[in-house]
Amino acid sequence: MNSAIIAVFLALASQAILATYHTTCYDYFLKKDGCVFSSPATSQRCPAPTKDHTDPVHRFNYGPPKAKPNDGHSLQRRYDDNNPSFSVAGGKGACDNYNSATDLGVCLWSGAEQKAPTAESAGWLNGVAKSNCGKTVYVQRKGDPSTVKYVKVLDENVIGYLLLGCSFNTTLTNPGCFEIALTTKVIHIFLRPVATA
């Protein structure tokens, strides 16, 4: 009898240990949209947009080409930020140290709890929940899909690679989960040259 109770307890405890904890922003978008882009779980992943190919494989092409949307790009914007982006200064981030002048990186919302963060209170990441550190995001100038750049999450405040987390002076998932800050290097990539007369 005691061994059966211990076995049941261990089975329940192992499930709790193996349970996946998602960030606050992951849970927010899962509830809001019913799916999350780039989710590791296929049951929670948003469907990828269909990709059109410019040229058919001629060996198997039987008939005229089908009409295709003429959008000029294959990526689709997933989330727009609500406020203008800003640059981060550099230093110690949630993921690692970074140099804003030389690292391509982004800073994403670190969550509502800023004084004593926990893994459960992380927005996209924080100093405790670092599973998004080093992941790659794509960034584009608003309204101009031809400017897409891929960057790593560095921590709370850097674009490129996710490098760090930023508070963005909000404790609310909307707008927090939509906000992004960039390293100076990323901002310089998006600057358009000024024509001189």
Automatic annotation (TrEMBL):
Keywords tagged on the record: Signal
Taxonomic lineage: Eukaryota, Fungi, Dikarya, Basidiomycota, Pucciniomycotina
Residues making up the signal peptide according to the UniProt record: 1-19
Name this polypeptide is given: Secreted protein
Keyword check for Signal: yes
Species assigned in the record: Puccinia graminis f. sp. tritici
Superkingdom of source: Eukaryota
